[in-house]
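Researcher: I'd like a structural prediction for the single chain below. Treat it as a standalone chain; there are no partners to consider.
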Amino acid sequence: MTVFERWYKFFLISIAIVCIFGIPIVASAESLSTQSYQVQADVVPGAAVVLQNNTISLATTDNQQYLYGVAVQGSDVVVNVSSGTTKYPIVTSGQARVAASDINGEIQVGDQLAASPIAGAVMKATQSSRVVGTAAQSFSATQKDQPNQQRSLKATDGSTKTVNIRLISLVVSVADFQPSVAAVPAVLLPLQQVLNGASGHTVTTERTILVTLVLLVALIIALVILYSSASSSIRSIGRNPTAKNAIFLSLLQVVGMIAVIFLIAFGMIKLIIRG
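Model: Treating it as a single chain, here is the predicted structure.
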């Protein structure tokens, strides 16, 4: 083998080594690159964050279109954003733990998670929005495996709602979300808008239909009671014209019964839309 052939063989082997080992090293370095962003002081591990105007800050429903990732203690798939001498690991793709709330109800594995009115916390996505990722762990206020933090939120009707918050696992993948739910029948749209305003969040089609059924049942029961009472009163007056006072008191009792029926119905509706 000539000297030229030896050098040529050595050159080919060197290129192969660079291709096998060099590319993964470069890719790893890029995934752990440090980028100079300003970071707000209230960004803490477990918070969903946005990148807006070269600044990392807590995500809310007002800035959800700029969702960037989740701040963590440490991860294999992170971008280390720095502010002075402090580095903030941000997961932009991969597994992380995030502060989740039950504003839109219980969270199940596979649910899409969006920014919430509570800065840094996420909630189940129920309408078209930007999402930070997919839940890899369920969350219910009744679960006792770890404590919940509680916050109070005001609904659009002025009422106060207690919200539970807990760290759960998710797969970070920022994307646009379109819910695949059945369309609300046009006749139920006004009712759904009223329920949305009363609850402070979007009420699903299924819950709107359930509320409609509760109202219909209450109305039917009330009409049956009222019709039976009115018929009985008319017959009583025909037989005994002097029994008007007793009949009047009987009608007042019927009105009271109907009021109780609708109070029970409204209580059931409140439980249904609480979500």
